[in-house]
Amino acid sequence: MINPHIHIEGLTKSYGNEKALKALSVDIAKGELFGFIGPDGAGKTTLFRLLATLLLPDSGSAEVLGYDTVSGYKEIRKQIGYMPGKFSLYQDLSVEENLNFFAGIHGTTLQENYHLVQDIYQHIEPFKNRRAGKLSGGMKQKLALSCALIHQPKVLLLDEPTTGVDAVSRQEFWEMLKNLKEKGITVVVSTPYMDEAALCDRVALMQKGSVLKINTPQQITAEFGHALFSIRSDTMFKLLGDLLQLENTHAAFRFGDTIHFTSHNKEETSQSIANNLIAQGHHNVVVEPVLPTIEDCFILLMKMENNA
Amino acid sequence: MRTILFILQKEFRQIFRDRTMLPIILVVPMVQLLILSYTATFELKNTRLAIIDQDHSVSSRSLNRKFEGSPFFSMVDGLITYDEGMEMLKRSKADQILVIESDLDYHIGRSEKAGLLLVTNAINGSAASLMNAYALAIINDFGKEVQKEMYPNLPKVMPIHIEVRHWYNPQLDYKTYMVPGILVLLVTLIGMFLSGMNIVKEKEFGTIEQINVTPIKKYQFMIGKLLPFWFIAMFELLFGLGFAALVFNIHIVGSLPLLLGVASVYLLVVLGFGLLVSTITETMQQAMFVSWFFLVIFILMSGLFTPAESMPDWAQWLNRINPIAYFIQINRMIMLKGSSFSDFADQFYALVVYAFVIFSLAVWRYRKVA
Questions:
Q1: pTM for the complete prediction?
Q2: Which of A93, A107, A147 sits opposite B13 (nearest CB)?
Q3: Structural domains of chain A, ranges and CATH numbers in brackets
Q4: Does CATH number 3.40.50.10330 belong to domain B47-150?
Q5: Which of A146, A180, A194, B96 could form a disulfide with A117 if both were Cys (CB 3.0 to 4.6 A apart)?
Q6: Is the pLDDT of residue B195 over 60?
Q7: Highest mean pLDDT among B137-146, B150-159, B349-358
Q8: How near does any CA of chain B get to the CA of A78, in Å?
Q9: At B50, is the secondary structure helix, strand, or coil?
């Protein structure tokens, strides 16, 4: 990648014996909407704090906008907007006071940069005199995003911005991120929600401090490499055990209220699987071919990683 | 500079928006001055004395009347035996018992040596010695009168005449001694507790994360954090001085600007201390415990209640690192004696060194942690 906005190479960080990040390497281009997807404990927050110059790496390095996070932290701090996973604005100050304060310490004003935050801020402007602590989860995130944007950053680091936010607000929030991206801001997001991966330009699937895969969400699902079947029957618990015992089973795992199944046998069809299961005494068997999602890919990659 | 102003504006907003804050600033000084200066006293009034008069004679009744007439004693009446008296002492119904045996008048009449038994509850040693001193003074007085009656021709003038004068606090009023010390306490509490707590609060709520990724410089953050409490503590001192003048009629004898000057240096020490505590703790609870640990030791050793001069040598040596002790000393000197700068220059320079050391330490620690 030529002139990436963020360049991470072999980044490693441990807390005592706990390895939070294991030699992570990622490049993120200018104007990209990039997602780090992974469950709790994958190392997402550690990575974001390293990028935000709040932590020092054990080894490896990270560059943001061409500045090293250790030696160039002063420059980075001027040009990034960071939103920690935990709401960290002043709960006892009002919406407007928070925004004015963060504008002020960056040497600008709300009036001057109103156009930057307008799209987002207008959602919460009717409540501008309300204390930040009294806002709902979604409104808090919009305020935090406004505060992170007020100084016209080139890179936005958003650590789990949609955790604990209702479905409608989440959707709104992602719309806002897309708009920001269109304005040329590099947006880096972390999230534990697999369904949000599809909204990113590219994602890195993370697990236990390592990256399993980096690609566009479309490419990741395209590389799934197996026919995927969604299966249901009357006896779900027995079904999972039986599927794992089948001769050609590649993987079988719970997915919502169904079981997702892949086979080594390329000739496998819904009918052949159903017949097999009925022969084993299952009733009301439903087998449907489905398209793999990011979550399927993640689970499969995780299984391969664990077996390796 | 503009950045500092923004931080100051935010801090003052938050401080005055905190509903517990205004009462703390205004009520605490009044309550402390009113309650502590009246209660933390070694003056003795109303010692409960049980006189067990087994003599019922002219002499014993005259001694009885002397005690009744004294403002220091209140009588516990109706006791007849020594055992009854001891029971009262045990049950804390009496502080002192005086036993007059049945032969007092008989011995006095025959110009013989007579005896009395004085029993004092000495759980509180210093109170006991005071009670003893008062009681002995009355008994001595009684003895002299008896002597005069028996030997009217004895010379009336004692060979050495002592006249006692109490300087700086002529009424020996304990409040005069306490008020300057309590003012120091006030300023210390504001400076050490509130400032440290304020910074740790940002850590605990995670707001410091957001601050740390901004281009705010450390010195800007620290000035923005400490200056409000410097102002509040100075206001507190003036408020307390005014209150002391109005309510206790204790007026500052020395120079007010001098006192404020020393206070502003002293505040650097306490604010630095608060800052240091905030760098080694993560939650307000921890900060509270650490500050309290030091504060209790500093206060009890400061000479606020008991004179520092009567502490053991090692304690006096330890007091050299006790900023509260220095400022209480200086404050009493300025407020009560009207001392000038040269009288306490040594203590003042000690504070200056202290401020410098503790602030450097705090700033150094702060850089490493944040």
A1: 0.78
A2: A93
A3: 6-221 (3.40.50.300), 225-291 (3.30.70.100)
A4: no
A5: A146
A6: yes
A7: B349-358
A8: 6
A9: strand
